[in-house]
Amino acid sequence: MTSLSQDCDKEKLRSVSVDLNNDSSLLIDIPDALCERDKVKFTVHTKTTLNSFQKPDFSVSRQHEDFIWLHDTLVETEEYAGLIIPPAPPKPDFESPREKMHKLGEGEATMTKEEYTKMKQELEAEYLAVFKKTVQVHEIFLQRLSSHPNLSKDRNFQIFLEYDQDLSVRRKNAKEMFGGFFKNMVKSADEVLISGIKDVDEFFEQEKTFLLDYFSKIKDSTAKAEKMTRSHKNVADDYIHISATLNSIAADDNTALKQHLEKFAELLEKLRKVEGRVASDQELKLTELLRYYMRDIQAAKDLLYRRARALADYENSNKALDKARLKSKDVAQAEENQKQCLLKFDKLSESGKKELTSFKGRRVVAFRKNLIEMAELEIKHAKNSISLLQGCIELLKVN
Amino acid sequence: MTAWEPPDRPRSRLAYCCPEKMAEDREPPPLADAVQTDFREVEEGEDLFVSTVSTAEQLSPTSPEPASFPAEDISTNSNGPKQEILLDDDQEDLFAEATEEVSLDSPEREPILSDGPSPAITPVTPTVIITPRVDALFDRSLDEDEEAEENGDTFDMQITVSDPEKVGDGMNAYMAYKVTTKTSLSLFSRNEFSVKRRFSDFLGLHSKLASKYMHIGYIVPPAPEKSIVGMTKVKVGKEDLSSAEFVEKRRSALERYLMRTVNHPALVKDPDVIQFLENTELPRAVSTQALSGAGILRMVNKAADAVNKMTIKMNESDAWFEEKQQQFENLDIQLRKLHASVESLVCHRKELSVNTASFAKSAAMLGNSEDHTALSRALSQLAEVEEKIDQLHHEQAYADFYLFSELLGDYVRLITAVKGVFDQRMKTWSKWQDAQVMLQRKREAEAKLQYANKPDKLQQAKDEIKEWEAKVQQGERDFEQISKNIRREVERFEKQRVKDFKVVIIKYLESLVHTQQQLIKYWEAFLPEAKAIA
User: Fold this and answer.
1) I want to staple A261 with a disulfide (CB 3.0 to 4.6 A). Which of A20, A250, B152, B514 is the partner?
2) CA B397, CA B399: separation in Å to the nearest integer?
3) C-alpha dist (Å) from residue A186 to A180, A190, A204, A295
4) In angstroms, rounded to a whole number, what is the distance separating the alpha carbons of residues B252 and B246?
5) Cα-based distances in Å from B334 to A242, A245, A249, A250, B338
6) Contact residues on chain B for A260, CB-CB shorter than 8 A
């Protein structure tokens, strides 16, 4: 069981989406989380001045599935069709560090105790990093909701925050899961629909072209960034082994080389920590940024799909109205239907335009912030490495 | 596009050295006794070495005192300390500093010192393979003065292996390497000369030296390993990056091999070595082939040795040998482990380079797709930075390999040679013991014959006793000699090991510093771009 308590690192982690949690009328955070075997239990803490809540300050325990339920209900809510629903947080994935831990256990015999301890520490740090990341991502999801003028008032959202019992009663049962599968099939049909028709509205046409293309590019970049970060971690790990072996050689050495080897080993140990930080900072500022916006763009695409479906509904209603007029049967009903469809479509288009514009703004600001921070961190770490290296070189040259 | 300009020559000095250090090392080039210094290309068939061959023959390879350098080689009218490291870059300056005694003509020197036109096999990609010059390993100027005093003067010899060229076609093809020697030692007839050699020539040289010197306890540096896969690729004519890398790796290894060999005070005087470096034509060393008669004999001997090693139980009277043997045994294990870890580092670093390049391309495409102008530009800049960084990682991987990994590989093989001489000592001891046993038997036989009436047999027995007494004495002398030699060799070896590692560690750290400095440069250039996103 691992637990994570509030620490200032989280401030740094939160930069993927900016301008969140500013409205003091509803402040949400995840100060704590527990990891039991496969399940992560998040403590969702709410502070509010709104009357709609029973208490001004309260906490509940939620699991990942609860977040998914909340997301899906929001998506299915007709009223929010014209909004970009914040993407659902991905499932906590401890597979990578767990697998590495397993491999380490198997290879324990081949390394020195010192080496093993260091590798284990590294893995525990990695495990912790994954843990922190998943907390951050779940937190941001809630904060996106709380800072949205419409979504923050959602009844289900309120239930999620407040209901002090287990939410599992409301979560997906088997039938709904099947429904989810069906929904995915509909989505692919949507993609065909959207890419085929050329939109009359200039704005939406441009957005459509842009989002479709951008999505595939950012998906690719995310994957490549992830691979790059992993290679970086591998290099840092190699430094551990080299450092340990150098220490072994130094221990047996009784020549003038002894001190050199010891200092070299010590330096590599320090360097690998820096390399590790470079890798993890890169992951947070770059990979996570890309990954988050990839999902956000998917959410924006979903908005476009919904609008396309509304348009299709409207066009169908037009056809139905024409048919009704021809047959002179149920004309009033058809007229009403058509009016509703048009209304819905217009509402969607209007709110969609607003959402997409602010989305772009959000994206640009977030990229700017993260790219600046990443560059600054890289410079900081490189300077640190240089001072370590040069210090060591000086020492060695003297001898 | 690349920030770091690879030099014209395929092989160049490690650019990671501190410029300050290079300035320190800059000393006038070696000045020969003879003022005649113009370089002559070795003509085919020209026999220039008659005189030196005869002098070389006088130096018996089994002479017991090979330690001292021939004093007459070192010119005493040189103008200052010898320059051992050749700086490819600043030739003009060096010669400007030389005094009027030197009739050196910079342009004339060009053919030797620069590598001339690129080799027959060129890498396919624009990335030129740069091997950090590790000749600093053999820079005597870094030595403590005590060694110079001991030997009378500093060692002065520089060997370069260059210009790999494919000769022939198909499976009979081979690579020919140019071996250039620059020296002021009078062992050699000229100060500078070049020959063409192929890989089997190097193996042949090692084979001869090993058979001459190992049994008396000299640590003969091992030759680079054969590689069937590598060579087949080259033979087949695959002109890709991996076969170019293989050739470069081998070239560098051959160079280090020769430098280590001539750094050995006895081996540098060996006629086979001199012949190897100087002679235009060298008899083809067919006995190095695995399936030749000699090759098979080698395999049989190796097996026999292994068996003997297990059966000989030596009474070690000298704790020094026992201690040293154990020490080398441990060092062997640790070095192999370290070597494996460093090879893993090289591999991961190369992977990092590839993945960074891949990300750079992806980021560029993302930048193109981005519709916000400033962000689009920033993303394209990010792509460029990452591309430069991938090149940086690639270069660092080479430093990882040529500085660190290859050194470890060399030492793993060297320690095998060291263990070999310890085994030879065991064999020598065993031979001595066997002689003693034989002598004892002969004495017993003679004693028996005293009471039989066979005068001629008795005489024969007495003669045999004399023969075996001499053998026992010789055996004891041999054993003492090899023990003495090994002590001296190990001391020399350890000194060299300390020096090699010290030098390489510092050079390697300097390479890491260079990489980090470049990183700062690139990210600092990118930062304003990121800030400009509006």
Assistant:
1) A250
2) 5
3) 10, 6, 21, 19
4) 10
5) 11, 7, 6, 10, 6
6) 501-502, 505
The CB-side HSE value for B62 (13 A sphere, CA atoms) comes to 7
pLDDT at A270: 95
In terms of CATH, what superfamily is B155-311? Phox-like domain (3.30.1520.10)
CA of residue B439 relative to chain centroid, distance: 45
Distance CA A294, CA A308 (A): 21
Beta strands in chain A (DSSP E): 2-4, 26-36, 39-48, 57-63
The CA distance from B504 to A257, in Å, is 12
Q: Which fold has domain A212-398?
A: Substrate Binding Domain Of Dnak; Chain:A; Domain 2 (1.20.1270)
Two tokens, residue B14: 């490690």
Question: Which residue has 């060692």 as its token pair?
Answer: B155
Q: Is B27 exposed, middle or buried (0-12, 13-18, 19+ CB in 10 A)?
A: middle
B285 burial via Cβ count (<10 Å: 0-12, 13-18, 19+):
buried
Most confident of A99-103, B29-33, B141-145, B350-354: B350-354
What pLDDT, on the 0 to 100 scale, is given for residue B481?
A: 93
Q: Looking at the whole model, is its pTM more than 0.90?
A: no
- Give pLDDT tens digits for B199-235: 999 999 999 999 999 989 999 999 998 887 777 777 7
Closest CA to A74 of A171, A156, A173: A156
In chain B, CATH 3.30.1520.10 covers 155-311
- Work out the minimum CA distance from A132 to partner chain B, whole angstroms: 25
Q: What is the pLDDT of residues B52-106, one digit of tens each?
A: 333 333 333 333 333 333 333 333 333 433 333 333 343 333 333 333 333 333 3
The shortest CB-CB distance from B344 to any of A210, A218, A238 is to: A238
Determine whether the interchain pair B375/A249 forms a contact, defined as Cβ–Cβ distance below 8 Å: no
- Report the alpha-carbon distance of residue B415 to residue B423 in Å, rounded: 12
Q: Give the count of beta carbons closer than 10 Å to the beta carbon of residue B45.
A: 7
Q: Please check whether residue B487 is in contact with residue B320, taking contact to mean a CB–CB distance below 8 angstroms.
A: yes
CATH 3.30.1520.10 positions along chain A are 23-95+129-167
Q: For residue B157, give both structure tokens.
A: 């010899």
Q: Give contacts of A 191-250 with B, CB under 8 A.
A: 206, 210, 213-214, 217-218, 220-221, 224-225, 227-228, 230-232, 234-235, 238-239, 241-242, 245-246, 248-249
Q: How far is A395 from chain B (nearest CA, A)?
A: 10
Query: ipTM of the predicted structure?
Result: 0.86
Fold exhibited by the domain A23-95+129-167: PX Domain (3.30.1520)
Residue from the list A241, A245, A364 with its beta carbon closest to the beta carbon of B372: A364
CA distances from B210 to B222, B252, B477 (A): 9, 22, 21
Judged by DSSP in three states, B87 sits in coil
Give the lowest-confidence range in A208-217, B139-148, B359-368: B139-148
- The model's confidence at residue A121, banded by pLDDT at 50, 70 and 90, is confident
- DSSP 3-state assignment of A294? helix
What is the nearest CA distance from B515 to chain A, expressed in angstroms?
A: 9
Which residues make up the CATH 1.20.1270.60 domain(s) of chain A? 212-398
Q: What is the pLDDT, as a whole number, of residue B52?
A: 38
Q: How confident is the model over A56-77, as pLDDT tens digits?
A: 999 999 999 999 999 999 998 8
How far is the C-alpha of A290 from the C-alpha of A218, rounded, in Å?
6
**CATH of the domain spanning B318-533, picked from 3.40.50.2000, 1.20.1270.60, 3.40.50.20, 1.25.40.180:** 1.20.1270.60
Which tokens is B65 given? 């005192």
Rg (CA), chain B: 28
Q: What is the mean pLDDT of residues A258-273?
A: 94
